[in-house]
Write a structure and sequence with these properties.
Number of strands: 7
Strand content: 5-15%
Order of helices and strands: EEHEEHEHHHHHHHHHHHEEH
CATH class of the domain at 10-100: Alpha Beta
Largest sheet: 5 strands, mixed
Low-confidence stretches: 1-17
CATH superfamily of the domain at 10-100: Conserved hypothetical protein from pyrococcus furiosus pfu- 392566-001, ParB domain
Structural class: alpha/beta
CATH topology of the domain at 10-100: Conserved hypothetical protein from pyrococcus furiosus pfu- 392566-001, ParB domain
Length: 326
């Protein structure tokens, strides 16, 4: 082990991992933006404060190739020490090989439950290098794990989609459905996932209905997509935009059912007209359940609501219900 000392590049240019494993390097001497550094993340303020007050207690890991130092582990420490203009305690290891670098970084940096985007980032690097069962175990995946199949399907998409995955605007469940679109169609779809965050159920509805509409309807993909994308420009909340988009697609996918639902909605609106009751049918004609909503600010209004409800009971909202099912 070397004594602590300020060292220039020239003073350690002949160092190897076997002859001198620990060095004090300048942060500028270490190449940190390497493809096996999967998720460098933002600077941790707690780590920065600790390094400033207590100093670096744990060395980073690097390897040397052609007299150049490449980071293996310790990205945030190098960044902080660079900003503090302090030397970096460095443990030099033998070059393990490209796949082993990725597996080593993953095992030293992964979260207890790695997020989907993190797994995809690792697989983008590791899959071309060939993954064995033992490698998958390091990644916390069994060969029969359904998550592995989703990741492999996702990897057929362009890396651009990883951005929306990292933002959690969609998840890996979308991969099999996205794979059914042509590459050019997926590229046109991408803006929908840049600013809007889709739940698993909503992304499934969106993509499934789009595919089915394209297969069944006369409208082509561009016509449908242009209409949807125009909704993203509306002055609505993100959730209201998603609701409006799905409502439009539902009407396109199920035009007869949508027409009947509209007739029922108009019927209930007319039925409750002149009262303070609101009657709605949220179940898309799947059952006969109706919702009755009203508000009262005082006893007089409550009495009127009761009177109006008695009238609605006499008219029977379910009278001739079959007309909406024909």
């Amino acid at each position: 082990m070397l004594k602590k000392q300020k060292m220039s590049t020239n003073s350690h240019k002949d160092v190897t991992s076997k002859s001198c494993p620990v060095l004090a390097l300048s942060a500028q001497e270490i190449i940190i933006d390497n493809p096996w550094i999967f998720w460098p993340q933002k600077q941790n303020p707690v780590l920065a404060k600790s390094l400033k007050l207590l100093g670096q207690q744990e060395p980073i890991l690097v390897f040397v190739r052609e007299k150049v130092f490449f980071l293996v582990h310790g990205y945030q420490r190098v960044k902080v020490l660079k900003s503090l203009k302090q030397p970096v305690k460095t443990l030099v290891i033998d070059y393990p090989g490209p796949k082993e670098l990725g597996l080593l970084y993953f095992s030293l940096n992964t979260l207890p439950h790695p997020k989907e985007w993190a797994l995809v980032k690792a697989f983008r690097y590791l899959q071309p290098l060939g993954l064995r069962k033992s490698d998958l175990e390091i990644l916390g995946l069994h060969p029969q794990n359904p998550l592995l199949a989703k990741i492999e399907t996702w990897l057929n998409l362009s890396e651009t989609w990883d951005l929306s995955l990292a933002k959690e605007h969609l998840n890996l469940d979308a991969a099999p459905l996205l794979a059914k679109f042509l590459p050019a169609e997926r590229e046109q779809l991408f803006p929908l996932f840049q600013t809007l965050k889709w739940s698993s159920s909503n992304q499934k509805k969106l993509l499934t209905w789009l595919l089915e509409i394209m297969a069944l309807a006369e409208k082509n993909f561009n016509q449908i997509l242009n209409t949807i994308l125009s909704i993203t420009q509306d002055k609505l909340s993100p959730q209201d935009k998603i609701k409006k988009i799905l409502g439009l697609l539902w009407e396109e996918r199920y035009p007869v059912l949508a027409s009947k639902q509209k007739q029922l909605s108009n019927y209930l609106t007319n039925l409750s007209g002149g009262t303070n009751w609101e009657i709605s049918h949220p179940s898309m004609l799947e059952n006969t359940c109706l919702e009755f909503k009203a508000r009262a600010n005082n006893l007089s209004q409550l009495k009127q609501l009761h009177k109006d409800l008695e009238s609605l009971i006499q008219q029977n909202p379910w009278h001739n219900w079959e007309q909406f099912l024909v």
